[in-house]
Amino acid sequence: MEPVCRQARPEDYEAVYRLWMDSGGIGVTSLEDSKEYFERFLQRNQATCFTAEADGRPVGIILCGNDGRSGHIYHLIVDPAFRGRGLARRLLQLSLEALRADGIGGADAVVFRENPANDFWEQEGFRDRPDLIYRDIPLKQDNVWMNRSKRPGDYPKL
Ligand SMILES: CC(C)(COP(=O)(O)OP(=O)(O)OC[C@H]1O[C@@H](n2cnc3c(N)ncnc32)[C@H](O)[C@@H]1OP(=O)(O)O)[C@@H](O)C(=O)NCCC(=O)NCCS
User: Ligand 1 centroid to 120 CA: how many Å?
Assistant: First the structure.
């Protein structure tokens, strides 16, 4: 069945979590990627997060939000069985259109340097910025990586 894109919903979480954990390329953390924070993010950014659904289950998602200044994209993923048919591009375009409609002038995505998905972002017009250094700071000790060095499918129970 051809996937249909719609706004993301809290009940998508379980399927989406498995997609994130089973895939390379996405860094899943215990706090930001918990069910509670997924719901929090959707509440704050309802208009810009989209799920692709096929046969009643999520097969792709984009988390996108804005802080009133610029847009930020996280964890774009498509189920391997549905890749290569323009689904990620559709999800991305929906989010970018929604950002534009909200008056936002630009968006960013942080991508692991070795991720082959960099070619996707390049293709979609996202520039590499060698003039910048990405910096962050941990604010909570209990926020840990969930899927680093784990085999696909080997994820903690929810
Ligand atoms: C990256 C990802 C979301 C792309 O999903 P997709 O639905 O297969 O992508 P699309 O079919 O919409 O591709 C759009 C364009 O990007 C290109 N592209 C997509 N993935 C690519 C890849 N891994 N390498 C090179 N080009 C790629 C496609 O060829 C296509 O260009 P074309 O129309 O000129 O052929 C998917 O590979 C994925 O889920 N990867 C694992 C998770 C991940 O790393 N996400 C990114 C986190 S920052």
Answer: 5
| 119 CA from centroid of ligand 1 (Å) | 7
The reply to whether ligand 1 has any atom less than 6 angstroms from the CB of 85 is yes
Topology (CATH) of 4-123: Aminopeptidase (3.40.630)
Task: Please give the Cα distance from 14 to 8 (Å, whole number).
Answer: 12
pLDDT (tens digit, 9 = 90+) per residue, 4-20? Answer: 999 999 999 999 999 99
At residue 16, what is the residue type? Answer: V
Give, as one character, the DSSP assignment of residue 47.
G
Tell me what pLDDT residue 149 has: 45
- Domain assignments of the chain as residue spans, ordered by start: 4-123
* DSSP helix/strand/coil, 72: strand
What CA dihedral angle connects 93, 97, 99 and 104, to 10 degrees? 110
CA-based nearest residue to 86, from 6, 15, 3, 18:
3
